[in-house]
Amino acid sequence: MTSQDIFAGPILRRAQQDLVTIWLATTRPLSLKFSVRINGNRDWMGHDEQPRRVRLFPKLYCYLARISPLNGQHFPTNQLLEYSIAERIFGNDDYSAFEEIVSDDSLAYGDLNLPSFFLQTPGNKLNALYGSCRKIHDKNGGTSDALSFGDSLIKENIKNFDNRPSLLCLGGDQIYADDVHDYCFGEIAKLTAKFSDGYAEKLPGGLSLPGKGKRQDFVTKNANFTSGSAQNHLITLADYAAMYGLILNDHNWSRVGTPEAQALGFRPPEISIFVLALGAVRRLLANVPTYMIFDDHDVTDDWNLSVKWTNDVKASALGKRIVANALAAYWLFQGWGNDPDIFDTVLSTLVDTIEQRENNYEALETQLWTFDKWEFFAPSYPLIYFLNTRTDRGFKDGIKAMDPNAPAYLKSVKSWMDTLARLKTLLTKQSGDYPLVLVAPGPVFGFHFLDDLQALISAIAGPYPLDFESWAANKDHLYLFLRICGDKNVVLLSGDVHYGFTSTVKFSTFDDDLLRQAIRMYPDLVLPKRGTGDTPTYKFLYASKFIQLTSSALKNFASDATRTLSGIDNGLSLLIRLNDFRPATYANGEFTVYEPGLETFVVLTEEQAKPSNLVRQRVNDALNAPYIDAHNLGFLTIDKQVITHCFYTPSGKQFERTWNFANESYWT
Q1: CA neighbor of 648 nearest in space, from 276, 170, 130
Q2: Are residues 154 and 184 in the same domain?
Q3: Same domain, 294 and 313
Q4: Does residue 591 sit in the same domain as residue 645?
Q5: Which of 89, 207, 614, 637 is the most exposed place for a label (fewest CB within 10 A)?
């Protein structure tokens, strides 16, 4: 085994006391053994001698090792662990080749010979990195790939577990399948020819695969896609696999000065920046447990944005194929390692359908279009739960399609019930002193002015030009989510919007008609408190507190207009009534409500105001980090109810803020 045999990886994936998973992709079939031990010890604590392998192409194989400790032991917490990969040759385990790869490719830190990591001790503070949106050819956001900043943080804290992150959360748009640069298209073509070894996917309906710059009309007409940047859209499974190869390993890029590179032409500087940072990114992913959820660009822009979009694409043979190819690639390169147990019941069938897809591509399409268990949790303390807001969306009113063009619920009501049932079980395993931590790819709370302006423009131009699919795009869905959070303290980790910021929000629920309707429809819905009597009382029931943390983008650019408009929202926003959205404040059972016609505030009782809920949000104030459009990577620490957060940017560590859920002043 040499560096040339590795297509991507190794990537450290799920890591807990009874299981460590490691992912690897190679260009030839190898007999491998994955092993974990305490750094400094000679003896291994656990092995996987038969990692599961998927043959994706004649010269591309993906492996996932599941390493459990021997003899009923547990991998220790708060100690430096390391792993190695042996090639099994004639009954002998040769670890030396991997050590040479680690040395040659600089995959270990400091004076260590192997990639390392540690497991957080439950009760100790949790350090986590998070980010999203990493577009190879972004040229407006600065000369950096912010994901590489995580590498620097670990390098400075190799054995300092008080500061070293114990996991990395990637919240979507790890690739841009629709927005592919001409130069990258050439690299993809070169790479696919190499690992496909003459194999070519047959497109449905006898369609021919267009070349560079000729795919916009092709996917618009034949797949019903709506991306406006689809000149080089990924189509085949080989396209998607090659794109992952480009974002994960600099060895997959043509070397500058070689005939292959000269044939591709001049490499744009923004792409050179990306390639130069890949060594640091690869080392980071090899040395920190990494969890990944998809967003739209991992498949295509606007993926499942509306009922109409989903129906149109599903009715197209090419549309079904491309989405299936994207999900197959996501599963192999991102999803599989998040929690292998999720896929156990379908693993054998899924592997078979991938490996034998040319004999029955419809089977692969059906399996991936209907799979509904993409959500997972990272086994940290507190746990971090990743929401799937893409494949199981609901209709506008949550029940049936009233307007097929309208933004869909990001999660259907049924999927919310499934999520709540799982969370109910999971949360019994951690102390109530800790918040609920959710990864929601798009911010649940944003800048009100931006949301309102986007809604106004989208009402005229339609939902697709501005990607009008945020939580604010469908307020019924937003308030359903906020209600079912009950009286919990919640930390939200988000991305998607190509800028970073933080916000604190308090959401108050009252006994109104909508809440009672939800209870009637879903009697098993667990809420901290319900109204009494036969009719709504509009009395206050409970409140939840949120910290919205948004790190975006690792490498992408937000427009100048976005920066300007975000500055309009400043300080403490007033509470908003759901039924007519008038500004209001609330205290001691009374509302001070703005009356537009009178141009003044009047005092109303709860019964007079008939409130549904109230939102109190702080943004762009002294308690929160302001809008930041530089490439950024988020870093947070959770120490029971105390949350500390900062951004790592090209200028270094910025906008560190601390909140304490036990202190009400952060939310008033």
Answers
A1: 130
A2: yes
A3: yes
A4: no
A5: 89
Same-domain status, 64 and 139: no
pLDDT digits (tens, 9 = 90+) for 165-192: 999 999 999 999 999 999 999 999 999 9
Give the tens place of pLDDT for each residue, 345-397.
999 999 999 999 999 999 999 999 999 999 999 999 999 999 999 998 876 55
User: For tokens 């192999």, what's the residue?
Assistant: 332
Residues 86 and 98 sit within 8 Å (Cβ to Cβ): yes
Question: DSSP letters of 2-45?
Answer: -GGGEEEEEEEEEEETTEEEEEEEESS---EEEEEEETT-SS-S
Same domain? 440 vs 541: yes
126, 120 contact by CB (below 8 A)? yes
- Specify the number of domains making up the chain: 3
Beta-bridged to residue 64, according to DSSP, are 23, 52
- What is the CATH number for 92? 2.60.40
Q: Which two tokens stand for residue 131?
A: 């980010």
| Reported confidence tier of residue 588, pLDDT bands at 50, 70, 90 | confident
Residue-averaged pLDDT of the chain: 89
Q: Mean per-residue pLDDT for 572-586?
A: 57
Q: Tell the burial category of 70 from Cβ atoms under 10 Å away from its Cβ (0-12, 13-18, 19+).
A: exposed
Helix locations, 157-306, DSSP H: 182-196, 216-223, 237-248, 259-264, 269-287
Instruction: Give residue 574's pLDDT.
Output: 46
Spatial distance between the Cα atoms of 456 and 476, rounded to a whole number of angstroms: 17
In three-state secondary structure terms, 431 is: coil
Q: Token pair of 341, please?
A: 């147990």
How would residue 417 be classed by pLDDT, with cut points 50, 70 and 90?
A: confident
Structure tokens given for 607: 């019964």
User: φ and ψ at 41, to 5 degrees?
Assistant: -90, 150
Distance CA 147, CA 631 (A): 9
Residue 175 to residues 185, 242, 377, Cα–Cα distance (Å): 13, 11, 22
Rounded to whole angstroms, how far apart are CA atoms 522 and 235?
41
Same domain, 108 and 132: no
Q: Is 232 helix (H, G, I), strand (E, B) or coil?
A: coil
**Does 121 score more than 90 pLDDT?**
yes
Show the domain range for 595.
578-611
Phi, psi of 427 (to 5 degrees): -70, -15
Give one DSSP letter per residue of 333-389, joined into a string: IIITTT-GGGGTTTHHHHHHHHHTGGG-HHHHHHHHHH-----EEE-SSS-EEEP--
Report the alpha-carbon distance of residue 75 to residue 210 in Å, rounded. 51
C-alpha distance from residue 364 to each of 209, 320, 326, 349, 355 (Å): 20, 10, 11, 9, 10
CA within 13 Å, CB half, 104: 12
Assess whether pLDDT exceeds 90 at residue 571.
Answer: no
d(CA 552, CA 647): 10
Residue 88: CB partners within 8 Å, gap ≥ 6? 31, 32, 33, 49, 94
Which tokens belong to 591?
A: 């509302």
pLDDT, average across residues 119-140? 95
**Among residues 161, 168, 163, which one has the least CA distance to residue 39?**
161
Residues 609 and 601 sit within 8 Å (Cβ to Cβ): no
